[in-house]
Amino acid sequence: MTQSVGPVHFLLVDDLEENLLSLEALLAREDIVLLKARSGDQALELLLQHDVALALLDVQMPNMDGFELAEFMRGNERTRHIPIIFVTAGTADSQRRFRGYEAGAVDFIQKPIEPDILRSKAEVFFDLYRQRQLVSAQRDELAAATLALREADRRKDEFLAVLGHELRNPVAALLAGFHLMQKKRDDPARLEAIHEQMDRQLSHLSRLIEDLLDISRISEGKISLRTERVELSTILQSAIEASGPKLEAAGHDFSADVPDGPVWLDVDHTRIAQVISNLLNNAAKYTPPGGKVRLSAVPCECCIDIIVEDNGVGIPAEMQPRIFQIFTQVDDHREFASGGIGVGLALVSQLVALHGGAIAVASEGAGKGSRFTVSLPLSKG
Ligand code: ADP
After folding, report:
1. Has residue 1 got a pLDDT over 50?
2. How far apart are CA 166 and CA 341, in angstroms?
3. pTM for this one?
């Protein structure tokens, strides 16, 4: 944990400038800010502006004396607990005049001041204050960590609920298909249709499970990339082949625009093709039929930007920063998700990061289309 604590302030109050100067000379330290006041009123003003670890009050001052000032301090919630050291020329008897001992620490120091005694008393209050600052900084950090844990726990519960629900549908469909197949044994055409449906459900299920396993392998550091020197167009070709049927089925106008010359990358061909195909599948899903989907690649100085853009439902600005977190879905998009549960983009961004690349999303909002840009380093070979 990192603790950030502010400076420690001491308040010095004395009506005589030379006394303030000698107190200042005695207490000056790099980690302490000394606030000086020539009267009770000035002191109260400074107390409004600063948190103070210790107040050193001269008892004998004209107008408001040290005891009166201390009583004001004890009467105010903000300054009630500030430790006070009275600087007095009087006897122990006069010390009884002060009534406010119950709220905060009170101590007395006699004039002429003995430097070592003053310094060691001040040191005690300095340490106490620092410790309190650390404890409260730690408490804030703990509170923030607890909040983050609660949020992670809530998202995990939500995920389990969504996962259970999403798995139930294909499993129920498979079960129904299985029973139907037994009943329709004599109807080959019907059997074929049921078979195809079951095949689709099964491949959806197994893709979902593979994605979830990949994510957990990445987070446990157990995924190994088969990195090789590959030419970009072969990767894009694989992705287009994998996503072509989905783009066609939705009747989208698909175009690909790749650089003329060869672009070499050191990547895992299968994984990067999976990334691009995932983005193309999303573009196909989240664009109403007959839309436009474009794949392009733009070389930069030491990287290549691979861009997948569509003119579909778009992503609201407030969701864009979270869109690569696992299980994040835009509420209004569920009808387009076709069984997706918000795992794809999380996997995509982790795979890109594993390759030393980055992914970004841009969309002007609902109905305005989306653009995903994957930047990958060029081969050094
Ligand atoms: P899902 O399985 O829900 O599609 P993803 O992780 O692939 O999961 O995507 C997360 C969410 O991002 C989607 O549910 C959808 O709301 C939004 N999204 C992804 N791609 C697009 C896109 N091309 N256009 C609009 N929204 C998108």
Report:
1. no
2. 8
3. 0.62
- pLDDT for 221 equals 82
SS3 assignment, position 121: helix
155-172 confidence digits (pLDDT tens):
788 778 877 877 887 788
> Which tokens belong to 336?
């387009």
Ligand 1, residue 323: give the atom nearest the CA.
Answer: 12
83 within ligand 1 shell (Cβ under 6 A) = no
Residue 179's identity, in one-letter code, is H
Angle between helices 66-75 and 40-49 (to 10 degrees): 30
Per the CB < 8 A criterion, the answer to whether 20 and 12 are in contact is yes
Whether residue 342 has its Cβ less than 6 Å from ligand 1: yes
Average pLDDT score over the chain: 90
Question: Can you list the pairs that 46-51 forms with residues at least 24 positions away whose Cβ atoms lie under 8 Å?
Answer: 46/11, 47/11, 47/73, 47/76, 47/78, 47/79, 47/82, 48/78, 50/9, 50/11, 51/6, 51/9
Please state, in angstroms and rounded to a whole number, the distance separating the CA atoms of residues 315 and 306: 19
Distance, CA of 202 to CA of 167 (rounded, Å): 11
Round to whole Å and give the CA distance between 317 and 321.
8
Regarding the beta carbon of 337 and ligand 1, being less than 6 Å apart is answered: yes
Q: Does residue 299 have a cis bond before it (omega within 30 degrees)?
A: no
Exposure class string for 286-314: b at 16+ Cβ within 10 A, else e: bbeeebebbbbbeeeeebbbbbbbbbbbb
Q: How far is the CA of 222 from the centre of ligand 1 (A)?
A: 26
Element (H, E) at 94: helix 92-95
- Answer whether 279's CB lies under 8 Å from 348's CB: yes
